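Hi Y.,

Following your request, here is the sequence exactly as I used it, all 209 residues.
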Amino acid sequence: ERVYTWGPGVRDHYLIHYVVDGKGTYTVNNTVYELRAGDIFLAKPSQLITYSADKEEPWEYYWVGFNGTEARRMIQLTGFEEVHPVLRLPETGEIRELLLSIYRSSGNTPAADAEMAGYLYLFLARLIRERGNAASTDTQAEYLTQAIRFVQRNFASDITVQHIADYAGVSRSQLYRAFLSDCGVSPHDFLQKYRINEACSLLRGGRLT
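Below is the corresponding structure, written out as tokens. Let me know if you'd prefer a different format.
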């Protein structure tokens, strides 16, 4: 039996495991979850977790770790909850193939980064679809999505938080609360972090000084 423990401060990213065969247990927030094939479990940054394979039917799982300016919002849209960090999906092979595609795309080039990110978004989109229509009908999620798209398309221009709020059709205070709730940062900090991430990407690509 192999037991894995991640302590607080060790991990700076979200971690999602997908059980494809066998059984095991996952412990978080002093709660033990009995998992089997089809279960997906989430670990948040700096969260103390422990998980281990069943002695009689040890599990096989695939996993992916990620962070970034949109990570928290995407996780919230998938349906993971603080009191229940486990999802169950029908076993169709789709989830397994998406996770394998992320792995197969790994590399140290800008193209590999883009391909891995693309498959990661497809994987998260699959989880969001499984949640149903709740995410798509949520008003805050809708205008937050509009605001983030505006930032993605215009971050290189001299835009302000007011420009973002105007585009999303909400007040600055509504926008602030939405970003703080779903992304964990203010609209201004989100814009600055997005610009820095894009700058780092350009530097890694070697196209600019």
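The chain has a mean pLDDT of 85.

Thanks again,
Q.
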